Structure formats: C-alpha cells, structure tokens
Amino acid sequence: MANSMRKAPVPTLERLATYLTHLTELNTRGVDMISSADMETRTGINAAQFRKDLSYFGEFGRPGIGYNVEDLVRRIARILKVEREQRVLLVGAGNLGSAIAGYPGLRAQNFHIVAAFDNNFSKIGRRLWDLDIYDTAELVSRNAELQAKLAIIAVPANAAQGVADLLVEAQVKAILNFAPATLKLPPDVVVRNVDFVQELAVLSFHLAADNTEQETAGR
Amino acid sequence: MANSMRKAPVPTLERLATYLTHLTELNTRGVDMISSADMETRTGINAAQFRKDLSYFGEFGRPGIGYNVEDLVRRIARILKVEREQRVLLVGAGNLGSAIAGYPGLRAQNFHIVAAFDNNFSKIGRRLWDLDIYDTAELVSRNAELQAKLAIIAVPANAAQGVADLLVEAQVKAILNFAPATLKLPPDVVVRNVDFVQELAVLSFHLAADNTEQETAGR
Fold first, then answer.
1. pLDDT at residue A5 above 90?
2. A10·B200 Cβ contact <8 A
3. Cα(A160)–Cα(A116) distance, integer angstroms
4. Residues near A32 by Cβ (< 8 Å), separated by ≥ 6?
5. Closest CA to B116 of B127, B103, B102
6. Is B192 in Cβ contact with A203 (below 8 Å)?
7. Max alpha carbon distance in chain A (Å)?
8. Is A89 exposed, middle or buried (CB count within 10 Å of its CB: 0-12, 13-18, 19+)?
9. B205 Cβ partners below 8 Å, 6+ apart?
10. pTM more than 0.90
11. A131-135 and A127-128: which strand pairing?
12. Residue B28 distance to chain A (closest CA, Å)
C-alpha cells in the first residue's frame, strides 16, 4: 500500500464515503460516465475537492472525458474496504437500535448487522427486524463464532463503557458510538462518536444573523 | 463580533460542543477549575488542540492555574449560541424520531423540541414522549406560532426533500438531516448530515491491519 494512502485525512475518507453512496446509486441506474462538476451538483462538495480527494489514491478519470462510474465505485469501495461484506454487531435494541437496524443504506454498502444485543430481559429472545436479540452478557461468546470486527453502540450513556469493554474483549476493532459518553479504549480500537447535541450546537452557531459570511456547515 | 470568530473552522465548533458537554457535567458536580491536561483525559482531544480552539475566541484560563469551569461553560455556550433555549422542530416520529426526542442530552444543552410532525395518519394526534405529533402538512402554519429556527429531519430518504422545502417555507434556517439524501436548500439555510453508513465506511477503512499507523478516527 502506498504511503500516501495511509496519510489520507479523515475528512477525505468521510467524503469518499459520500461519493460512494452517490456513485453506487448512479451505477445501479446504469450511468456510465460522470464529470467532477456533475459530482459537485449531486454531493454539494466542490469539484476541485473531489479531484483532490481522489488524488490521494492514484490516477482516476481522464481530463475532458470524466470518470467511469463503475470503475470509481469499485476503486473507492476497495479503498474504504467495503467491497466485501462487513459483519457488524449492534448493542442496544431500543428505539435508536431499531432505527439503525432498519436503515436502508447499510446493506447497499455491504454492512451486515449479524446480531443485536440488549440487557433488557423483555427484549432478549425477541426479534429486531430480521435479527435475533441476545443477552449482552453473551456478547463475547457469540462473537467468538460471528467474528465481527465492527460494532455499533446504541445504549444509554451510563451503560456505554461497560459495553465497550465487552466489545474489546470480543475482539471488535472499530466502534460507532451513539451514546453521549467518551469511551476509554485500547489504542488498536478506533471509535467514531455520533453526537446529536454536538451537531445541533454547530448549527446553532450558524443560526446567528451576523454569521452569514461563515462557510456552510454542510458536509 | 471579531472577524476571527467568523473564521473559526467547523471542526473547532464541533470540538467546542464536545468541551461544553463535559464542562457542563463538571459544573453540575461543583468542580471549580480544570487544566487543559484534565480536558484531554476527559475528551480524548489533545490539550494543545483545546488551547488552540479556545484561542479563536479570545483569552481563556491562566497559565499554571487553569480554567474556571463555570466561566468556560458560559463563554462557550455564548459562542455556540446555546446560552438561551433553542426551539427545535422534529419531522418524523418513527423509531429514529422517537430516539432523538428521548435523547437526554438535548435539554441539558438548551435544545427544546417543541413539536413533532409525521405524515402517517396512525401517528398524527398521538404523543411522542411529551410531544404532540402534528400532520406534516401543518408544518408551516404551526411554525408561524412556534417560531423555531432549527429542525431535525428523521424521515425516509424519499420524503426528505419535500420536508426540507416545507421547513424552508416555515422560515427554518438550520437543519440536522438524518435522511440519507442530499438536500437542495437556499444559501441562507445551513444543513448538517448525519450519515451512519458514512461513519461505518470510515471505520471500515481503519479496520485493515496495514492501516494501524493511521491516526485514529476518533473525534
């Protein structure tokens, strides 16, 4: 792997995921070629930014001709390691867990939630969409078989660290955390936090009338 | 307002919101002073980054002594315009809308969801936690009275643009969008998109064994 690939900044990876969502849809509809200007129209991300983001990973597209959609889908999927199915554990089978498990875009990008866990005895043994809900206490033993490396935490804040510790013990290496809690994790486990309140606070800053010159908060 | 304030980059604003969450909790517990090193331990964000983020907005803290927690809460809340209650509309009263409306951190940061809207007749007229659920068709007329400037979209992708158009008509100026759709909005309306799949794709990139030198994806 080229050194430049390791150095790609996180915002570039976030944008690649956005490009991939749009390109996958275009590919499904049979669109062959696309220009960086078309991508700007679709994604709201500047065409120059699009070209720069791709440049971290080698040569793409041809000047004046554009980009082959199918090729771009395949290459971005490979960069993001989503070209093969990724198994995902979901911990928390409440409203949020249910919304996540039912999110239509997951399967389109090869994310497959393979099991849901909850510590509420009224939920254990029931189904969440097409998933079995297991006792959180079984997380380590279940994942010895399931072998998922990715997990989503959708439990209340006070339960999040306990769940994270179990996930680490279960050899999970990447966590998407929806709980408003800062998780302590070993250095080989990566985490991304989705914080609704943080998002609203950033929007709130942009609401003030005297901030209209600020660049937009869109991403 | 100082020009430097308008120039604060979005990631700085995101981190300010994270600091505020932690500082509010410390303040509630009666903690008086905190060092940037303590903040690093709590938030996982580098102490130098913390000091730099604050420096956009003037002088804070004293070398060797630290930061007064209550003062910092007040000043960051003022920067983010969350020192007063912000009224928020919620569109979509399904699992995701329910999870959002029940999110405990919203009230702590002065975000007040004042009404929920849905176009499903089995939901209209019922309650979502302590909220009335109104018909989405009434959004513009209801907000003439409610006067919310912030809204959250928690509807399926194919309904999102229609809802966004209504929100614009209702004079909403900032939208937190959970639908996997790119919204077309006038330039005076800011949007932030929460995209679960994008977050998972970034984590997926970091999962590969040969990427362990990559900086962590945490934020």
1. no
2. no
3. 15
4. A68, A69, A70
5. B127
6. yes
7. 61
8. buried
9. A13, A79, A80, A81, B211, B214, B217
10. no
11. antiparallel
12. 16
CB contact under 8 A, B99 and A104: no
Residue B166 token pair = 């209504």
How large is the average pLDDT for residues A13-17? Answer: 88
Region B186-198: mean pLDDT is 90
| A81-85, A156-160, B136-140: least confident range | A81-85
Q: Which of A198, A211, A214, A215 to mutate to test the interface with B (most CBs of B within 10 A)?
A: A198
Pick from A10, A200, A207, A214 the residue to mutate for testing the B interface (most B CBs within 10 Å): A200
3-state secondary structure of A113: strand
Model ipTM value: 0.83
Residue spans in chain B of domains classed CATH 1.10.10.10:
3-79
Alpha helix locations (H) across B80-156? 95-101, 105-108, 139-146
Bridge partners of A62? A66
Would you state the structure tokens that stand for residue B191, as one six-digit string?
């949007």
In which residue are the tokens 């009263």 written? B93
CB pairs under 8 A between A and B: 232
Question: Do residues A59 and A65 touch, judged by C-beta distance below 8 A?
Answer: no
For the stretch B165-199, what's the b/e string if a residue is b when 16 or more beta carbons lie within 10 angstroms of its beta carbon? Answer: ebbbebebbbbbbbbbbbbebeeebbbbbbbbbbb
Cα A104 to Cα A19, A78, A109, A176, distances in angstroms: 17, 21, 10, 17
Q: b vs e for B40-73, b when ≥16 Cβ sit within 10 Å of the residue's Cβ? A: eebbbbeeebbeebbebbeebbeeeebbbbeebb
Report the alpha-carbon distance of residue A129 to residue A123 in Å, rounded: 12
CB B145 within 8 A of CB B162: no
B88 at A interface, C-beta within 8 A: yes
Helices (H), chain B: 3-6, 10-28, 36-43, 47-55, 69-79, 95-101, 105-108, 139-146, 157-169, 196-207
- Of residues A71, A34, A84, A75, the one with CA closest to residue A56: A75
Alpha-carbon A183 to chain mean position:
18
Cα first-last separation, chain B: 28
CATH 3.30.1330.10 holds for A3-79: no
Of the candidates A142, A146, A149, A188, the one whose C-alpha atom is nearest the C-alpha of residue A171 is A149
DSSP B192: E
What is the CATH class of A86-197?
Answer: alpha beta
The Cα–Cα gap between A139 and A9 comes to 33
The boundaries of every CATH 3.40.50.720 domain in chain A are: 86-197
